[in-house]
Amino acid sequence: MEIVHVAAECFPMAKAGGLADVVGALPKYQVLQGHIAKVVVPMHRTEFLYQQQWELVHEGSQYLGPQFFHYSVIKEKSNGLGFDLYLVDINGLLDREKIYGYPDDTERFIAFQNAVCDWINSWKHLPDIIHCHDHHTGLVPFLLLHGIDFKERLAKIPSVFTVHNAQYNGAFSWEQKYLLPACSLQYWSLLDWHHQINPLAAALKTAWKITTVSPGYLQELRSSAAGLEQLFENEKEKSIGILNGIDTSIWDPGHDPYLLFHYTVSTAKTGKRQNKEELCRRFGLEVDRPLFCFIGRMVHEKAADLLPVAIAQAVATHPQKISFIVLGTGEKSIEEQLDLLSGPLQGSVGIHIGYQEALSHLLYAGADFLLMPSRVEPCGLNQLYALRFGTIPLVRAVGGLKDTVRDMGDPGGFGIRFEQPHVTDIVHAIDRAVSLYYQQPAHVDSFRQLVMQIDHSWHSAANEYLQVYKSLK
Prior knowledge:
Layout: E1 2-6, H1 18-32, E2 36-42, H2 47-51, E3 54-64, E4 67-76, E5 84-89, H3 105-121, E6 129-133, H4 139-146, H5 151-154, E7 159-163, E8 192-193, E9 196-197, H6 199-206, E10 209-212, H7 215-221, H8 229-234, E11 239-241, H9 268-283, E12 291-295, H10 307-317, E13 323-328, H11 332-341, E14 349-353, H12 357-366, E15 369-372, H13 382-388, E16 392-396, H14 399-404, E17 416-418, H15 423-439, H16 441-452, H17 458-471
Helix pairs in contact: 1-17, 3-4, 4-6, 9-12, 10-15
């Protein structure tokens, strides 16, 4: 089977979040299962772009409204990622350093999707599946069926659309309808939601199959989906939740190239201690205290706005000393509030504003606990990385966090869950973890060994996606 994945990002070519990790891993596992998997993303000007060798495979042209544009498709030569990676270059639109955040993002991603459809339409053969990811590719299922230039050949290709985060839908005004490729007027209603052109809604209506990145998130979307709740309810019969996996060849404490000190299940106690010592040396923290970390975007949906108060309360009121390290970037107001903690809580709190892949790996390896108080978490990969590295997660029971972390108070449990994204709940979860650390150190060691052996690789998820594809043939 030949599968073409279409997305805005793909690790290690370009990454803004978990979407990149999924698009960079799932195709690899599909190839390992004997299939042909290809990934096509915009040609962002990233470090990876300049480190690889590329070959030109196609050139074409299309219109973005009244503007004619030329595009080219290049292919990474080495196949070192384990799948074929293609980049679409449109001069002046896609050749930028950032993935998102430009005033003309609507135009950029419409042009990208138009170019992808035009390129596939030029193939002598057709792929078996076109798998689109998030709203940046949400118009593709619609264009395959109803784009005047594409439908004759492409309408018969089954499309799968995966919702990674429904909080972002890419909606734009009908006044910009002229930007769209030509399509029959009778089908324009498929693009509409609440009197706007909504790419996510269009994908939900027209994709042959919808998946979400966890079963729990699929259920939540029917009651909380940024205005699309009724549509998720309407399309529930063609929807399925498939829990994300992680690439265990990359996230492996025994061979991680970012770590100085490697370890396995049997050597986890010593290995984690060595990595913790390195972390505490860098941030000026005491190594014998329980070390909590937060890794992620400092935004409302991650409940990062609660961190400054929660951390300050936990440090000030807890009778025993604890340490925190926060790594991430996001809303300036949250960054500034966290930065302010560095002074009065020096010796207990380390803050790194920005993102470093190497530091994130060291945090998973060296921290005792990972804190994820998210208001919204479709799947969550951080808790899966933490489990793989023997770090115990403290999570709010939402979405994929609820699906993957079982509270240690329950039979077979191994993490700490709390119900609400409130400071009180976060501090209570921290208190539970601290008590475990100081009063039951043997339990901490046993939990570490337990969680490191949980299989969250992509093998199972890749099989589930294969079953979805087969159901459409």
